[in-house]
Amino acid sequence: MDTHRNWYHNPLNLVVAFIVLMVLAAPHPIAAFTRSEAVHFQRSIIDYRSRLNPRYKKIKRPKTKYIIVHTAELGLKTTLRVVSRGKRFRNGRRTNGGHAHYVIARNGRTYRILDRKYEADHAGRSMWNGDTDLSAVSIGIELVGYHYAPITEAQYRSVGILIEILQGVYALDDRAVLTHSQVAYGLPNRWHPKNHRGRKRCAKNFNRTKARLGPTWRYDPDVRARRLVADAQLAAVYYSPKQYVAEAQEANVISKRNTAWVIAGEDFDSSTTVYKFPNGRVYTGDQIAAQVGWNRLPAKTVVLLNQEERVERLRDDGPVKTIADGVTAWSLAGRSYNHKTTIYFLPSGRIKTGSMIHDWDDLPVKTRLIVGYKGPFELRKDQSAYRIAGKGYKDPRTIYYLPSKQLVRGHKIKDFTQLQLGTLVFLPTAS
Ligand SMILES: [Zn+2]
To answer: What is the CA(417)–ligand 1 centre distance, in A?
Structure first.
């Protein structure tokens, strides 16, 4: 009997202690997802590699040091096309695609765009801890959505599992996971006289905790080493000692604090950035300097990024708006997209209020919408337009949905006696 022997005299106990120490000292945190979750996720990835632009030159990446998260600033359909086939610019210039390794849709579904062994053209002018051209040493993950709109829980789950799998493959810790806005940098411009952060705003709303990532950089290593100048707003997002709540940030609307630079970064004067003024006028970023002046952007101007289509489609033609390729319900209605006073007219003829909409990316192209409305009120024998709308029955803001599925504004209707019964009337909620 040797009951007074210490625990460490038993060789088995020593082995156990050694294993416990190894686990605690390991560079990776304990897995946040189970093995079966990872296997199931991997099987569910949709292989989109065959859609890659054949002109994209595949180059094997010798080293992988980072995982970079982006927000696409677009809906699903356009994101998949742009990352696979390339971007189109209004001057005819095109890129060759290959702009991400993975795309994660709003419902969490994940697409493989390019084999992860190749370089993707996703980070542009970038720097982290002295490394430059991060596309050559990183994986790029694109989240469908906007940097000023919430990322979905389903996306956080998928991106969390995907990151964990990739961290295992490339032996990366949580500090290797960064967002595009964190690593992009710009050359001197009208806002900054030196090389600087703030070129991109991409994924600044990415909440690491929701992706089950652990602690990260408390400072920007390139700003600390004076290679770059900080961007005040991004520094507040990423390095403020107070936990900055990313979701509470302003949307894509110009105000004193929310300048074109804060919303669009280096894309502020791009031909693919569109400015919708409160008076309905539409300008592209490259027109502002000459036609308006950067100091004269009116408050409440809406800023849309990555608009490759003709701007005429975005011109504000009254309260009825239409979802198009690259124009989502979020870019038209913002936070109101799922309010009950936002009313959607689907191409099928169904009418839904925003509170019936699961996510803005689920709505088909050609869906029309009106924001800030109540109804429908049905025209019946005993219920005329005047009974429904009062003096506002001829108002341009009163909307009539005809049985032919046409949406007509009150002032466009010539003869109210000719309106068919069953026509639905929608009235603005704000007086
Ligand atoms: Zn990006």
So the answer is: 55
pTM of this structure: 0.84
Mean pLDDT, each 10-residue run in order, the chain (431 residues): 54 60 51 91 97 97 97 94 91 92 97 98 98 98 94 97 97 97 93 91 94 94 97 91 54 85 88 88 91 90 82 74 87 90 96 95 94 96 94 96 95 93 94 55
Strands 138-143 and 46-47: unpaired
* DSSP alpha helix (H) spans, 323-426: 329-333, 385-389
At the fourth CATH level, which superfamily is domain 35-248? Peptidoglycan recognition protein-like (3.40.80.10)
Ligand 1 geometric centre to CA of 311 (Å): 23
Structure tokens at 84: 């696979």
Expressed in angstroms and rounded, the spacing between residue 99 Cα and the centre of ligand 1 is 9
The alpha carbon of 123 and the centre of ligand 1 are apart by a number of angstroms equal to 6
Say how far apart CA 299 and CA 255 lie, in whole Å.
Answer: 5
